[in-house]
Amino acid sequence: MEFGICFKGFVSPDRARNLVKQAEEAGFDYCWFYDSHILWRECYPAIAMCMEHTTRMRFAPCVTNPNARDWSLAASLFASLAKQSGGRFDIGLGRGDSSVRVMGKKPAPLARVAEFTHKVKAMVRGEEVIYGECPEPVKFPWADGYELPVHIGAYGPKALKTAGEVGDGVILQIGDPYLVEWLAGQATAAGQEAGRDMADYKVIVAAPAYFGDKASCIESTKWFPAMVGNHVADIVEKYGTDSGLVPKSLTDYIEKRKGYDYSKHGQSDNPYLDFITPEIVESFCVLGQPEDHVTKLNHLKEAGMTHFNIYLDNGDEENIIAQYGEHIIPRFRD
């Protein structure tokens, strides 16, 4: 099983360098960065910097979207990072949340997510590509055939179907084993129905991890279900509460949700946290003592998880990395 860490853009450059070096030495496989250019600093300079201080770790945005950049610019950026890192670059991809909604723009349709996946992968390989915003063919003469892994973030049925049909993996921002199994199963089934070989398909669970007593763990990570609730609310609004397409456990927990402040996206001081219960926080995150983490991760692995990506947004980052390197990661290595 793979392990990753994920940063927001408020981590100082010096600290980011130190954290990725510590994480690589601890056995982590990936470092992910939020791609939300207004709320936080642009992530790709930070990724390039951190690549220079590691030799094995892979890097990726978690997640980018089709509407933030011209597609040739995005493909050139991704191919350049892959080349200068020796092939250590993936992307996470979504419709666009905080990076576009904070500007009052709408997320991309799923058909555009799928087209972006195909067209950008082709450009990164070095193929000649025509896409909607560019009337002339685009081809990078310097591309060297790199096959860009694209992992698609999803919650709703149609997004999960897209993730299975065109993605190399699915990103699930939730740490509840039942929901991970339910969500991942839809993505893998869609890929199988499309005739794809899903043997190496990644199921990436992205969620906070924290060590300590129950009260301190819950207080440090309660921001996360609020962020998840923002996505789930979109799905419930589209499909309703009685469609059978959204589990009751998801619709119930956002029943009292009043709103969401995108300027406080993914932060513990978001004013819209009152609807979050301790039970929800425990369900969605990986909390407690090392053995509690191992137990929860084993349940998630049984549910289909192949990669655990820790959102390092709660403080105590050095200790979390150290604890995983000493007590957790070795338990999941073959």
TrEMBL record:
Residues 1-307 form the Luciferase-like domain. InterPro entries: F420-G6PD/mer (IPR050564), F420_OxRdatse_CPS4043_pred (IPR022315), Luciferase-like_dom (IPR011251), Luciferase-like_sf (IPR036661). GO terms for molecular function: oxidoreductase activity, acting on paired donors, with incorporation or reduction of molecular oxygen. It comes from the Bacteria. Keywords: Oxidoreductase. This is Putative F420-dependent oxidoreductase. It comes from Halomonas organivorans.
